[in-house]
Amino acid sequence: MKTHKYITTFIISCLLSIYILKAQRPNLDSVKFEQENIFVHGNDTFFFPGEYFYFSIYCFNRVTKRPSDVSKIAHVQLINESTEEVFYNKIDLFNGLGQGDFFIPLDIASGTYKMVVYTNLMRNDAQNDHFEMDIMVLNPYTNDQEVFWDNNGDIEHSDKNGIQLSNNNVNKLLLIKGLQSKYNIRSKVEIELVAKDLASYNYSISVRKFDAVFENDIPQIENYAVKNKTIGSKTSEISSKTSFVPEIRGENIKGKVLLKSGQEINIPMRLLVSITGNNSYTNIIITKSDGNFIFPLNRNYEIENLEITPLNNGNDYEVILSTPKEITFKEKKFKKFQLDRNMEELIKQRSIHNQIENNYFSFRPDSIKLSQIKTESFYDGENIRYVLDEYTRFKTLKETITEIVEDVFVTELNNKKVFQIRTEYPLSEQLGFLPLVVIDGNVIEDITTLLDYDARKIKEIDVVHHQYVLGPQIYQGIVNIKTFNGDYSENTYTASNTKLFNLIPKQPLKNYFRQVYPDKNYNETIPDFRHQLLWNPRITQTKERKKLVFYTSDVKGVFSVCLEGLTNDGRPISLQKVFNVE
Predict the structure, then answer these.
(1) Same domain, yes or no, for 208 and 151?
(2) CATH code of residue 402
């Protein structure tokens, strides 16, 4: 009876391996996705060095206008008038919502820029493949301001008033209640957002100093939704030849395996993919017969270093990652702006305020949010964990395995040291399957060097006893080792055929600082020249009323409250109000 059980286990493992081989190479022919649009709510469109450009991303279905659950990554670029990239980042999308920021550096040139945002799915529609907005930067710390001169090479002197804001609080899905027309410096502002109905509202809100002469023309989602109502296709067909595969699980990694001579291969290759460090990840993928591959990285992982190792006589091959095709910006029109001598005092004042605020940044820091996604190991819940600080410490890993870790032992196979895991099914060992050995995300095929590794650097060892299928490979269990620093790859071991890729990490979610003045004497010796009184990139309102509180600073003048967002049923929300600080 037991023999039948062993044979059944073996057959199931083989069938599972075949299934996974097929599953890793899906047929994408004739798969259709409903297209997406993106809108970005920014805190401003005119910046000085030392300021932050905050933004909230709304990715929604092009037809229903409901938040999209297809794409999980948004790509953000800032380009100059020569269409050169100044800034790039990747933003996680959660049910169509994302957030980020960009610090305006001191060495940036004065001029007009464009913020360009897109998903891979949008790139498949040439008519409407990205969102864009104009961003202007005035760098008063450089002498080169020619870009803002008039046609005669002079600085204009005029009586223009710039863009004017109005209180558009009528016939809206949300109403702002309780906002007074005037406040004192360092005063509490308490407002209430009243919903028209009981839909679920997702919105972002910015409260910022408004200077009309700087033309703070912030896009509104209501206008954008109407303008783009009929632009672009409703669906996109994705096939194996599609240039931009939608990132429906996380960031797509695309590349090709070549012979080191540069010639193309003509057989499928097995690749070992590893994310190293404390938050490690391991998988085996199979390329197409021409060497091309694409695989998604689950967004549970904050990725900077990616290791890819060819497993088919790997020393003869080279792995190359593909560079995404750039968006073509032909005939792009950049917004023009002219300096006015009447702006001189405003420019000086704002520059001084920025310098003081940056000097006191430690008193008003932003903080990183804890990940919204639970990070799990690839064998979560199936392991026995040995936390080595709970045991007597031994000098080497070999001694630790022998004295502490049960059912794992060192033996010799074909004149090579290997680990074996004892199981209740002896046939598993007879079939010759070895355990998967991993340390800090690095798969170890030869444990000879690893056996002498200093065990005092090891935090814990996980052991999985049952057979495990990773890609096309069957393993008799897992031995997963984690060091305290997660740096085994850097300091100890890198296979000669392993290619290390440094990827641009996704921008982490942040909790943005909110100033509070509990009494008149609180922090009275610390200057407060905030122009941005409040930025909250993600508010969800499901009840009729929601209260928001913020505090004014030492800066006087007109401030705007700008709110942009979407309801879950696809209705746009745009709201603006102004108040004075005296």
Answers:
(1) yes
(2) 2.170.130
